[in-house]
Design a protein that fits this description.
The structure holds two protein chains of two kinds.
Chain A: H1 4-21, H2 25-44, H3 51-72, H4 75-79, H5 82-88, H6 94-123, H7 130-155, H8 161-172, H9 174-187, H10 198-223
Helix pairs in contact in A: 1-6, 2-3, 2-6, 3-6, 3-7, 3-9, 6-7, 7-8, 7-9, 7-10, 9-10
Chain B: E1 20-29, E2 32-42, E3 47-51, H1 58-65, E4 73-78, E5 81-83, H2 87-90, E6 94-97, H3 109-119, H4 124-137, H5 153-165, E7 171-175, H6 183-193, E8 200-204, H7 208-212, E9 217-222, E10 226-227
Parallel strand pairs in B: 3-8, 3-9, 6-7, 7-8
Antiparallel strand pairs in B: 1-2, 1-4, 4-5, 9-10
Chain lengths: 226, 230
Amino acid sequence: MTSSRTAFKAILAKDLRGELRTPQSLPAMALFAVTTFVVFRFGLDRTSLSGSLASGVLWATLLFAALLGVNRLFVAEREEGGFDAVRLAPIDRSALFAAKAAALFAYLLALELVVVPVFAIFFLDSAAALGPLVAVLVLADLGLAATGTLISSMAVHSRARDLLGPLVLLPLVVPLMIAATGASEPLLAVGGPGYHRFGSWLAVLCLYDLVFLLVGYAVFDFLLED
Amino acid sequence: MGTVRIPAVEPGQGRDEPALSLAGLRRDFGERTALADVDVELASGQTLLVLGPNGAGKTTLLRILATLLRPSGGTARALGCALPGETWKLRGRIGFLGHEPLLYRDLSGRENLRFHARLHGLDRQAAEARIEGLLAAVGMGRRADERVAELSAGMRQRLAICRCVLHEPELLLLDEPDSNLDAEGRERARALLGPAEGRTRVIVSHDPERYEREADRTLRLEAGGRPVAA
């Protein structure tokens, strides 16, 4: 039996190579996010945002941009026989879950590398919040990657996958979004970053990540059965 | 995430019993029965030719044997492993060539083969040598670095044949292996997919004349997936 580590690395490298060679998910996600910031900028008619409003704009935009990546995560597996290839190989199928979640996590980090500075330019008076915001972004991305991978693997077999994925995913990530916006709000407050209940929200994010990573690891094998 | 340790299949396990043993095998898709009452025994190293019209359940049978589908009824054993109970022992010992080449379009042929070699746990150096040998055998050495999306259906089939035998499987499950191949391609494919010592084959084909001479057993299915009475 092939080790899970070898299978994980092979699948992740395949996904990243494919995205680098013919970029599909990342440009769409980035373009969507930047366009949404432009819409908020003119829609709200504000040159600067802070606190809960800034946090809400940031996370609503990142969440809906992430949905684009989630929807495409397993398309190659479904259309090009990747599911069968994995099922024929002597590997622990959880390696596919781990590799796909890692790929989505990488896409989200790359997305944020581009669009969070754009957000700061559009809406923030100071870039001081960006440092501590990294911790919130990383933890929220981990949760989004775990939940998104799980839901995408189920929805991809449906003809209505573009509809089904978001419909199932959005309610599941409500706790994640509450924690992410809760942790970001004091960081984006007027007068510089604050840390009121910041640790508590990070703990909630960690707990969410742990639960969905474990659930995904535990049930993924069954999701691949016919 | 560590290595999952599963007891290795003992060398020679399953040699004393038929390579393939199916009894009353059935598969339903909802209300529709795709395969019913299939009884087959095949010794190690033999070839079973499966014939039948479209919709007779030939592909369904292959996918059950490949562990990609669960049977709805009956019993099935392949290479000494019960299906679906012991599929984890069987994976990696099967070479499956279906309607889809199972190749990623954005990767080159060589990258696809490397990917499958890694999934099957082949040593990197040994895999490179094996891949070069297979690409040469199917006449794809010079086009192996092109993206699969840019290749013709025949070229993809040649790569799919390489993928199928890359890990030197004991049981070959071949669904129309000559699909999209020209005369030269068919000859090259025969060299890789032909009968070899100890290698058991199940071949689905609409061209019985081509494979009847190689077949030790023939299973004829009729529409509805039932075997035609002899």
